[in-house]
Design a protein that fits this description.
The chain has a single domain, classed as Jelly Rolls, CATH 2.60.120. It is built from three helices and eight strands. The chain is an alpha+beta fold. It has a four-stranded antiparallel beta sheet. A hairpin with a 2-residue loop joins strand 4 and strand 5.
Length: 109
């Protein structure tokens, strides 16, 4: 992750654009607009930008800084690697659990 900062009024991304980053707001606040309508104010310690990365789709909204902000930023490729890693861990845990139940193991193991 990289630490980045932007000034108040900066547009981080626009609705319909391709998503390249996931953001965690370290300090400041940003507004989320969908179809030019304010939907949410995102504050310190909240994250955003994951939907376009998870679903490989365009940004569903526009995000604009309302104060000077600092963000932890994670690139798409690293975000995807982390999601895949967590999915693999969850799969292994579920498999182990199912294997520990004798009646289920007779069908799956």
């Amino acid at each position: 992750m990289s630490l980045c900062s932007v000034d108040s009024g900066t547009v981080l991304f626009k609705q319909g654009n391709i998503g390249f980053f996931f953001y965690i707001l370290r300090e400041g606040s940003v507004d989320l607009y969908i179809n030019e309508e304010l939907k949410k104010t995102i504050k310190t310690k909240e994250s955003f930008g994951e939907l376009a990365l998870l679903h490989n789709s365009p940004r569903s909204g526009t995000v604009k800084a309302t104060k000077n902000c600092e963000f932890w930023v994670l690139e798409r490729k690293n975000f995807r690697k982390i999601v895949e890693f967590i999915s693999q861990i969850n799969y292994e845990e579920n498999k182990k659990f199912i294997q520990s139940i004798p009646i289920l193991c007779t069908f799956i193991c």
